[in-house]
Amino acid sequence: MREGRPVLVVVGGLPATGKSTIADQLARLVGAPFVRVDRIEQAIVTYSPLEHPIGAAGYAVAYALASEQLRLGLDVIVECVNPIALTRDSWAATAADAGAGIVEVEVTCSDLDEHRRRALTRVTDVEGLVKPTWAEVVGREYHPWSRPHLTIDSLDTSPAAAAERIVTRILAARMEERGA
User: Fold this and answer.
1) Quick check: 178 pLDDT over 70?
2) Which of 165, 141, 162, 132 is nearest to 18 (CA)?
3) CA distance 62 to 34
4) Is residue 26 included in any domain, yes or no?
5) Domain holding 118: CATH number?
6) Contact (Cβ atoms closer than 8 angstroms) between residue 12 and residue 84
7) How far apart are alpha carbons 16 and 173 in whole angstroms?
8) 166 located within any domain
C-alpha cells in the first residue's frame, strides 16, 4: 500500500497538443485509471440519441468516474480539453470532495505551424470520433488558466519527460495535507 492520499491528475489543453499521448504514458507509468472525456462523449453519442456536441454530459460522467476511483484510494489520470473555469473548478471540487490531491496540467504546443500540422495529420483511436478541424481548434472557447498549474510545451518536451515531470507533482500532492 502506498503512502499518502490519492491524486487526481487532470491533463488539459487544446486539441492536437499531445494531451492524450502524455496522459496515456503517465497512466501506464503510475498504473492509474485513465479517464478520457473524448471516449466517454463518443460512447454517449454512439449509444444514445445525442449528437456532438453533447454539452456537459461527458464531463459529468468523467467527474463521477474519477470520484469513485479516488474514493477507492486510487490515483486517477483524466484527459480532456478542460477549456473554462467551470470545468477546472469542477475537477478541483471532485478531488476535494474525495479527500484527494490534484495536479492540474496544461499541455501546449508553442509552434503554431507544428500545432496545425498535428491537427491536420493525426488519426483518432476512438472509433467513430471525428477530430476537430484546425479552424475548430483555434476557434473554440478556451480561457486562460487563473490559478497555478503545470504547463508542458509538447514541442520541446517528450511524452516520457512530461510524464516524469507530472509524477514529481503527484508525489508532492500525495503528501500535502488535506485542504492545504
Assistant:
1) no
2) 162
3) 10
4) yes
5) 3.40.50.300
6) no
7) 27
8) yes
